[in-house]
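If you are new to this repository, start here. Below is one unmodified record pulled from the training split, so you can see the exact layout before writing a loader.
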Amino acid sequence: MEIEEPVGLGDRGRRMWRESLAIWSLTPAHLVLLEEACRIADRLELLDSILRAGSADVNGDVPQFADFAGLLSESRQQSGALKALLAEIRQGQRGAGPAAAEVAGGAGVSDLSARIAQRRNQSSG
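And here is the target side for that same chain:
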């Protein structure tokens, strides 16, 4: 089944959407997270272009609309949000049950809890 690309994505977001779907099999809830991650990727590209345009001004005149500290702060926040969304999406792949997490070493809290319980059982047994 072909999953329709969300409306309104920019170039970077569309590329991320296509490439992500090529490697991940996601639940419907995680598709929503992927859509938001793609929008954040587009937003980061926009913030970067504004920052680059302002820093390329050789005369030292700061554009009136640019609050560079605010733009940098927002860029950092958006980057953090993107990182968190991508981590959640990776955890939500279809077929990525406990066996798959165990092989990969697991990274989530539930994986850690399962490994602790397993070691306790091994120690007491």
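Two things worth knowing about this chain: The radius of gyration is 20 Å. Residues 97-107 have pLDDT under 50 and may be disordered.
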